Structure prediction request, 277 residues.
Amino acid sequence: MSKHSIPLAGVIGYPVAHSLSPRLHGHWLQRYGIKGHYVPLEVHPDDLVEVLGAMGRMGFVGANVTIPHKETVLRLADQVTDRATLIGAANTLTFRSDGTIFADNTDGYGFIENLRQRARGWDPRGGPAAVIGAGGAARAVIVSLLDAGVPEIRLTNRTRLRADQLKSEFGARIVVYDWVHMNAMLDGAATLVNTTSQGMEGQTPLKINLEELPKTALVTDIVYTPLRTPLLAAAEDAGFQTVDGLGMLLHQAVPGFQRWFGQRPEVDEDLRNVVLG
Ligand code: ATR
Prediction:
C-alpha cells in the first residue's frame, strides 16, 4: 500500500509539451471518478536516473516514457517484459511499493488493438504485411505483428541496412525489399503499414503506387497528424479500407492506466474527440 493518498502518474520526455498523454489519462481519471493526477514531466537526460529514483517516494505509481528516454529506461528498470526487451525500448513504467521499477512496451499492443477495434474483418494471420520503415516505431509494429501470427513481413526502408538488421534480429518471416522497389512488396499483401514520419504535417508525403495491392487489403499509418495522411487519403480514394494512427496512441495507454489505477479504461469516439481537442 502506498503511503500517499493520491496516486500520481505522468509522462516523462524532453521536450514533453506536445504529448497528448495528459489529456488522455486526465479524461479517464475524470470519467471513472478516480482520485489521481497525471502530469507532464520534462526531464533532461542528465537528470533521468535521479528523477526515476525519486518518483516512487514522491507518490508516483507509474509513468509513460517518450523521446528521448525510451531506450535508456530499459537499462534502469529492475524488471522488463519480454516484449519491451524485444522492441528494445519501454514506454510504460510502474513504480512498485518495494522501490523497484517494472518496464513494459505497449506500443505494439496499441498498434494491434487499434486495428482489431477499427478494421472490419481484419486478421493479422490473413496474409503478408508490408511494413515501411525500420526505426523504433517499426520495431514495435514488427514484434506485435509476429506475435499476432502474421505469416510474413515484407520490410522496406530508405536506409536498407536498418531493415537488414531487423531481419537478422527477427528472422525467417521477414523479407527485405529495396526502397526503390517498394511497390513490388504490395502484391498479395493483406496489410500495408507506414511507420515512417513521411506524410506527417510539414514532412514530404510517402511516394507509393497502390496498384499492386489487393483491393481487400487494409492500409494504416502510425502518423496521426494529420489523421488523414496523404497515404490514407490515396488509399481511401482507391477504395481500400483504412485505419488512422490515433488509436495506436489511445490503446497503448490502456495497460498502464489499468495497472496504476485499477480500472481498465475504454477507448471510444468520446476519447478520440477529447484527445483531438
Ligand atoms: P521512430 O522511433 O519514430 O520510428 P526513427 O527511429 O528515427 O523514429 O525512425 C524513423 C523512420 O522513418 C526510419 O525508418 C527512417 O528511415 P531511415 O532509417 O532511412 O532514416 C524513416 N524516415 C524518416 N524520414 C524519412 C524520409 N524523408 N524518407 C524516407 N524515410 C524516412
Observations:
- The chain has two domains: 8-106+253-276, 108-245.
- The pocket of 2'-monophosphoadenosine-5'-diphosphate is lined by residues 133-138, 157-159, 162, 195-198, 204 (CB under 6 Å).
- Residues 199 and 205 are 4 Å apart (CA to CA).
- The radius of gyration is 19 Å.
